[in-house]
Write a structure and sequence with these properties.
The chain is of the alpha/beta class. The chain is built from 11 helices and 8 strands.
Length: 243
């Protein structure tokens, strides 16, 4: 498949950030890494290969970016306020730099769907819920969607507005709700095996149902653990059945 590596100095993050691009045509799949991983993680663990038939057929073009989780929520040596500020800068990087890069690379605005596993699922879903005018869907796998799981009790506005389980239940802005209610590609998947937390996906689904936001929830069996073999099955399944 066609593969490119790009990068630039990010003014939002004040550091160099790389991005890998796979494919030649199709809607844009923006992949957010797990935990503290980098932009090549999904390639190293063969998730890109698992999508190979769809990529080579021109169904989608994959954009895989770096994580900065070790500079935000996962860095226990940082003051919690600095963690939340750093994550907001990461949002700015994605909305103000990555999305324009995607549009330029694709020759214009294309359907853009976020995807990620584990911590990447939280960020992928949050990006859609934060900016439904810019993001068209999400494939969130094996996520915990309550940011307080990572903040050790700390709370500020940047925590609140990046925590779907906080702000979604209170969301009454008709502009946001109209955008979200018009989505056709909100996909939440989880296994029920070791280290999975299926109730966290059910909790998010419950909130979306309360707000009238259409979505697709799949809870897989107890043989599906919180690990790469699960995600290598989930992502191609969703691409083939829901897109």
């Amino acid at each position: 498949m066609q593969r490119e590596i790009h990068g630039w100095w990010s003014p939002s993050l004040n550091k160099h950030m790389d991005i890998a691009v796979y494919g030649h045509y199709g809607f844009a799949l923006l992949m957010i890494p797990t935990a503290a991983a980098d932009y090549l993680e999904y390639e190293r663990f063969y998730l890109i290969d698992a999508m190979g038939d769809f990529i080579n057929a021109g169904k989608l073009k994959v954009f895989s970016i770096n994580s900065i989780s070790m500079e935000s929520w996962l860095n226990k040596d940082m003051h919690p306020r600095h963690r939340s500020m750093r994550h907001q800068q990461y949002n700015d990087y994605i909305f103000n730099e990555v999305l324009p890069f995607i549009h330029n690379h694709c020759g214009g605005r294309v359907m853009t769907v976020t995807a990620g596993a584990s911590v990447g699922a939280l960020h992928s879903a949050n990006l859609l819920f934060r900016r439904p005018d810019l993001i068209d869907g999400t494939i969130a796998m094996s996520g915990v969607y309550d940011l307080k799981y990572y903040t050790e009790g700390y709370h500020d506005d940047d925590v609140y507005f990046n925590n779907p389980m906080d702000y979604l239940p209170n969301l009454n802005d008709e502009w946001y709700l109209a955008h979200l209610r018009g989505k056709q590609h909100i996909n939440i998947l989880t296994g029920s095996g070791p280290y999975e937390s299926p109730d966290r996906s059910r909790d998010l689904s419950h909130v979306l149902n309360m707000k009238g936001i259409p979505h697709h929830l799949e809870v897989w069996g107890h043989d599906m653990s919180h690990d790469w073999p699960t995600w290598r099955r989930m992502l191609p399944h969703i691409l083939g059945s829901r897109f």
